[in-house]
Write a structure and sequence with these properties.
- This protein has helices spanning 10-34, 45-48, 52-65.
- By secondary structure, the chain is mainly alpha-helical.
Length: 77
């Protein structure tokens, strides 16, 4: 017999509930600790807060650590 929502594993459902509850608790703690109201982050939050030069250097370092020789060229316009 299939339960509503398509969940077949009770363990997976419990893990999901705990994960969501944890996220809500963290949000509540931050609101209480800072006194600022909660606001949802927009879709561009992750792309606009990155330092692209720093991220590029980190990725190059990771590839070099894996034994790759890395050369960078500007993208064609």
């Amino acid at each position: 017999m299939m339960k509503n929502g398509g969940h077949r594993s009770g363990v997976a459902k419990k893990k999901a509930v705990v994960t969501v509850a944890h996220a809500v608790i963290v949000i509540i703690w931050h609101v209480l600790a800072t006194g600022r109201p909660y606001h949802e982050l927009d879709a561009e939050y992750l792309t606009t807060r990155k330092d692209l030069e720093k991220e590029t250097q980190q990725l190059i370092a990771k590839l070099q650590a894996l034994g790759h020789k890395v050369t960078i060229e500007p993208a064609a316009a």
